[in-house]
Amino acid sequence: EATVAQIAAGEVVERPASVVKELVENSLDAGASSVDVSVESGGTERIVVADDGRGMTADDLQVAVRQHTTSKLGDADDLDAVSTLGFRGEALYTVGSVSEMTVTTRPRDAGGSGSRIVVDHGDVGDVTPAGRPAGTTVEVADLFGETPARRKYLKRAATEFGHVNRAVTRYALANPDVAVSLTHDGREVFATTGTGDVRDAALAVYGREVAQSLREVDAEPNTGSVERVHGYVSDPEVTRSTREYLATFVNGRAVTDTVLREAVLDGYGGQLAPDRYPFAVLFVDCEGVDANVHPRKLEVRFEDEAGVKSAVESAVRDALLDSGL
Ligand code: ADP
Ligand code: MG
């Protein structure tokens, strides 16, 4: 029988990709310069996220996997705090209640030693000593193993992996200064090098053809709520049949937003073939953003929607014109 905590967890941890998002966010929050994500069978069998961030002491670790309040709770409408489950301050607790979760960590400072804790579908074990370089590894197995009603909603491995891949891709593109790697069933899917250059990250994630077609976008509209629109868009010939390669970020956070996507497409001014979508890695720095605090996705509403749309559209148009198209 599933406990109340397990049922509640199923509402927010929908699938392997939701777990991956939470763990990667934690690694980035911990100041990691490398984050390695490895999944088996799309994450339905196993998820491992390892970082070289600041790590935790044994005491921190005890607290981290239990239900606790986070300082982030107070700022639930701050875009920064709202990303996925982050604003609940209970990601590790939630994941631990619906899986077999092992956290191994060692603090970067104070020459601290390593420790490990295992949470077996909500049963928190004792902290034991464990060797590890500074940083944290979280391993999640048997996801929804004790909540069959939830487990049966998982899709086949390829579909779940698609969600994981999209999520990790976005973190890699949004954090070009962090070396992010993704491995599926033992095969490396991509690995960025953390140079800080978005184009390098795009090369690692999307490959050479796409990276070479990228045109730099950089505009500071100086009007309305948009401070800066920057990033890259592909030539109109380098497209795919789905919108998923149109990655947009508002104030550094990946968002799914039709206003931004339409604005990017409009910036191509009819140069795209029907039902073809370009690659984009586009950052919008902007005021007047309301974030929707739905735990599973990050949607935004712009106070000045028309202004944002025209700023993005003209930034993209200028980038394509500059490159002589
Ligand atoms: P939140 O991130 O909202 O605080 P989580 O349950 O995701 O809640 O994490 C709980 C706490 O565990 C974090 O606040 C942090 O102190 C610690 N923690 C989790 N993951 C890591 C990590 N990869 N590196 C260092 N500390 C971590
Ligand atoms: Mg967190």
UniProtKB/TrEMBL annotation:
Region described as Disordered: spans on this chain: 104-133
Domain of life according to the entry: Archaea
Domain DNA mismatch repair protein S5: 202-321
Residues annotated as transmembrane: none
Residue span relative to the full protein: 11 to 335 of 662
Name of this chain's protein: DNA mismatch repair protein MutL
Family: Belongs to the DNA mismatch repair MutL/HexB family.
Biological role: This protein is involved in the repair of mismatches in DNA. It is required for dam-dependent methyl-directed DNA mismatch repair. May act as a 'molecular matchmaker', a protein that promotes the formation of a stable complex between two or more DNA-binding proteins in an ATP-dependent manner without itself being part of a final effector complex.
Annotated organism of origin: Halobacterium jilantaiense
